[in-house]
Design brief:
Helices cover 54% and strands 16% of the residues. The longest helix has 28 residues, at 383-410.
C-alpha cells in the first residue's frame, strides 16, 4: 500500500507544518490571513486551469498543500486565547491588585498538599466580560469542600502569572499550561468564595456528576482506596488521587501508558462492544446499527470519563476506525488515522504539542506499520504461544516507534517493558471488561459486592505484578542525554530502516545510509557544541546554596549541602547534567571567592565575613547575611549582585533598593530564576 499516494497525507503534513511554523515563528494575524486569502485565490484559478492543462494540474496540487499550510497557521492563531482581546491576560490591572472575578468551575485536577485545584473559565472581572481558562487553588482546611463542577463563583483576588521553570533544564510548567491555554492562577480560601445558587449545567457538569456517582457507589461497596484510585485511572482516565509510589512503579516497569486512557483502553472497549454486538448479522442494516452503537458507546464513555483530552483523542480516533471498518476498506487504517489527526488538530491545534497526543498516534501508527514485520518472522501453531508472540511483537513495534520521543521527554528507558506488557496484558484485558461492567452498574446503583471484589482483586494483582517488575530497578536506564538533534536523526534512521526492511532496494539502502550519516553528524555537532560551552550558574534553591561551574562536559558543584556531597544525586543538578551532556567532576564546599572566565566572584554567606581588599565583578549573597550592603557596594564597586533563594524576602527588598540607587544590576533567583554567567 502506497500511503503517500493518498492526497490526505500531504494535506495533513502541510497542515501540521503550518501549525509548527506558527507556533515557533508567531506571525501577525494580518500576514497569516493575507497568505490564506492568496491561497484561496490561487486554488480557485488553478482549479479551472487544471481541467485544460496537465502542468496546471501539478500547480493545483501544490496550491492545495500551500492552502493547507496557511490553514494550519491560521487555525493555531485563532485557537490561541491570549491573542483574543477578550482574554483576561489583556486586563493588566488584575495582575497588580485585587479585583472581583467571576468564574465557572470546569474540571477538578490533581490536588497538592496545600490546595484543592480546579480549572475554571473566567466570566468577568469587575463586572466587565472577560474570557479564558485559569487554575484556581483553594486552600485546604478542616471545613468541608462545597465546590462542585458547574459552580459559578465570585472571589476578590489577584491574578498570578504562571511561573516559568527557575532552574536550568527542568520541566517548564508555565509552557505546559500555556499550551493548554491557561495563563494564570488564583490562590484563595473557601471562606473568600461566594458561590452562586445557579449552576451551569453543561456537558462538563453532567460528566462530573456521573463520575462522582460512580466513585460514591464504589465507596459504598467498600472498594479499597488504593485499588479504586488505579481503577479510576484505568477506566476513566482520572489520575488525580494515585499515590506517587504507584506512579513510580508504573514508570520503572514501562507501563505508564496503562494509567492514562489511550488507544489501548478505548480499543479494549471497542472490542468488548463488538463482542456484545456479534449476534447482529453483518448485513448493510446490521453493520450500520453496529456502527451507530459503537460511536454512541464511545461518546458516552468520553462523557463519563470527564471529557479529558486523552479520552477525546482516543474516542475520535477509534470512531474513525469504526467508520472505516463499516465502509469495508481494507487499506484505510492509515487514512482513518490521518483523518482523525486532521479533525482533532483542526479544532484543538495545541494538542500537537501534547506528549500524550504524540505518543498515542506514534505508538498506534508504529503498531500498524512495524508489527507485521515481526509477525511474519514466526507464526506459532500453539494458540498460547501465538498470543504471547503477538503481545511481544505489538509491544516491540510500539516501543521502536516511540523510543526517540520517550528519550527526548523522559531521559530514561525501562529495560523490562516487554516483560511487563506480556505479564499484564491478560490481566489488563480482564480488568477492562470487568471495569466496564462495574462502572456501568455504578452509574445507576451500588455494584454487587462479589463483582466489586473480583474487580478489586484483579487490580491488586496487576499492581503486584507492576511492583515486582519495577523492583528490578537496575534494568531502568536513567539520565540518558538526548536532544532535539538526536530526536530528529534517530526518527529518520528508524523510518528509513523500516522502509528498507519492508521492501529492500538499493535506493532505500542509500536513504538509510544517508540518515545514518546525519545521526553521526548530530553526535559530532553536539559534542563540539558541548565542549565549547563555559558557564557558571547560581541555582534557585530555598534551603541550600548550589553553584555549578561548567567547562565543556566537566561540571564542578559548590554547595553547603552535606547530603548532596555524600549522595552525589540531586534532581536539580541531575537535570542540568543530563540536559547539557555533562558529567559531574567534583563536589566541593562552597567558597567565599570564585574565579570564572577572568571574573572574580565574591560570596557572602550567613557569617557576613568577606575580604574587603578585593574588587569583585559579581557579589553572591546567600543565607541572609547581616550586612550593610550600601557600604559594601560603595567600597567594593561590583558590576552586579545576585541573591539566591536562601535569603529572606524582606531583606532582599532592601538589597534591591540599594542596588537600584547605585544603578547596579540586581538578580534575585526567587523572582527571576537561576543566574547564568557565561
Amino acid at each position: 500500500m502506497k500511503v503517500l499516494d493518498f492526497p490526505l497525507v500531504k494535506i495533513t503534513i502541510s497542515f501540521i507544518l503550518g501549525i509548527l511554523v506558527c507556533y515557533f515563528w508567531q506571525p501577525l494575524i494580518l500576514l497569516a490571513t493575507t497568505a490564506l486569502g492568496l491561497g484561496i485565490f490561487l486554488i480557485s484559478i488553478l482549479y479551472f486551469l487544471s481541467k485544460k492543462s496537465k502542468k496546471a494540474n501539478i500547480l493545483f496540487g501544490i496550491s492545495i498543500n500551500y492552502l493547507s499550510f496557511c490553514v494550519g497557521i491560521t487555525t493555531l492563531l485563532i485557537n490561541t486565547d491570549s491573542l483574543q482581546q477578550s482574554n483576561y491576560t489583556h486586563y493588566e490591572k488584575a495582575f497588580k491588585s485585587e479585583h472581583y472575578i467571576t468564574l465557572t468551575l470546569r474540571e477538578k485536577i490533581k490536588s497538592n498538599d496545600y490546595s484543592d485545584r480546579y480549572i475554571a473559565i473566567v466570566n468577568s472581572i469587575n463586572q466587565k466580560k472577560y474570557l479564558g481558562r485559569i487554575i484556581i487553588n483553594v486552600q485546604k482546611d478542616s471545613l468541608p469542600n462545597p465546590l462542585i463542577i458547574g459552580n459559578i463563583i465570585k472571589v476578590k483576588t489577584i491574578l498570578h502569572h504562571n511561573s516559568p521553570s527557575k532552574n536550568p533544564n527542568q520541566f517548564d510548567y508555565s509552557k505546559y499550561l500555556a499550551n493548554k491555554q491557561i495563563y494564570a492562577q488564583i490562590y484563595t480560601s473557601k471562606t473568600a468564595i461566594n458561590i452562586n445558587r445557579k449552576i451551569k449545567k453543561d456537558i462538563w457538569f453532567y460528566a462530573s456528576r456521573l463520575n462522582t456517582k460512580i466513585i460514591r457507589n464504589l465507596e459504598k461497596a467498600n472498594f479499597n482506596k488504593t485499588e479504586m484510585d488505579v481503577a479510576m485511572a484505568l477506566i476513566l482516565g482520572q489520575q488525580q488521587e494515585i499515590s506517587s509510589e504507584i506512579i513510580k512503579d508504573y514508570q520503572y516497569s514501562g507501563a505508564t501508558h496503562v494509567l492514562s486512557v489511550s488507544g489501548l483502553h478505548v480499543g479494549f472497549i471497542m472490542i468488548f462492544i463488538l463482542f456484545i454486538l456479534k449476534p447482529i448479522p453483518n448485513t448493510k442494516k446490521g453493520s450500520f446499527t453496529k456502527l451507530v452503537v459503537i460511536i454512541i458507546s464511545l461518546a458516552l464513555f468520553g462523557i463519563v470519563s470527564g471529557l479529558s483530552p486523552p479520552v477525546l483523542r482516543s474516542v475520535v480516533m477509534f470512531s474513525f476506525i469504526a467508520i472505516g471498518n463499516h465502509l469495508h476498506r481494507s487499506t484505510n487504517t492509515y487514512h482513518t488515522l490521518l483523518v482523525s489527526v486532521l479533525l482533532i488538530l483542526l479544532f484543538e491545534p495545541y494538542f500537537l504539542f501534547d506528549v500524550g497526543f504524540q505518543l498515542s498516534y506514534i505508538a498506534l501508527f508504529s503498531i500498524v506499520w512495524i508489527q507485521p514485520l515481526f509477525k511474519n518472522i514466526w507464526t506459532p501453531k500453539n494458540k498460547i504461544v501465538n498470543y504471547l508472540w503477538e503481545a511481544l511483537t505489538v509491544s516491540f513495534a510500539a516501543q521502536i516507534g516511540t523510543f526517540p520521543i520517550c528519550l527526548y521527554y523522559f531521559h530514561q528507558f525501562p529495560g523490562l517493558f516487554f516483560v511487563t506488557n506480556i505479564l499484564i496484558l491478560p490481566v489488563l484485558s480482564f480488568i477492562m471488561i470487568a471495569g466496564i461492567i462495574v462502572m456501568v452498574i455504578s452509574v445507576f446503583q451500588s455494584c454487587p459486592l462479589f463483582i466489586v471484589q473480583i474487580f478489586e482483586k484483579s487490580i491488586y494483582f496487576l499492581n503486584l505484578i507492576i511492583h515486582y517488575v519495577a523492583s528490578f530497578d537496575s534494568f531502568v536506564i536513567r539520565n540518558i542525554c538526548f536532544n532535539s538533534y538526536y530526536l530528529l536523526t534517530f526518527s529518520l534512521v528508524t523510518i528509513t530502516v523500516i522502509i528498507w526492511f519492508k521492501k529492500p532496494s538499493f535506493g532505500k539502502l542509500i536513504a538509510f545510509l544517508f540518515t545514518f550519516i546525519l545521526l553521526q553528524i548530530s553526535f559530532v555537532y553536539t559534542k563540539k557544541e558541548t565542549e565549547n560551552q563555559r558557564e557558571l550558574i547560581v541555582f534557585n534553591t530555598a534551603k541550600k546554596t548550589i553553584i555549578t561551574k561548567r567547562t565543556g562536559q566537566n561540571v564542578s558543584i559548590f554547595t553547603n549541602d552535606s547530603l548532596l556531597k555524600k549522595e552525589t544525586k540531586n534532581n536539580i543538578t541531575d537535570a542540568y547534567l543530563v540536559g547539557n551532556f555533562a558529567t559531574l567532576k567534583e563536589i566541593k564546599t562552597v567558597r567565599n571567592l570564585l574565579f570564572f572566565n577572568g571574573k572574580k566572584i565574591l560570596l557572602i554567606d550567613s557569617t557576613g565575613i568577606y575580604e574587603d581588599k578585593i574588587q569583585p565583578d559579581i557579589i553572591i549573597l546567600t543565607q541572609s547575611p547581616k550586612i550593610n550592603l550600601d557600604r559594601i557596594l560603595q567600597k567594593l564597586k561590583p558590576k552586579g549582585v545576585v541573591a539566591d533563594a536562601t535569603n529572606s524576602n524582606s531583606i532582599q527588598k532592601y538589597w534591591r533598593t540599594s542596588c537600584l540607587i547605585k544603578n547596579i544590576p540586581f538578580h534575585a533567583t526567587r523572582e527571576k530564576g537561576y543566574y547564568t554567567l557565561n
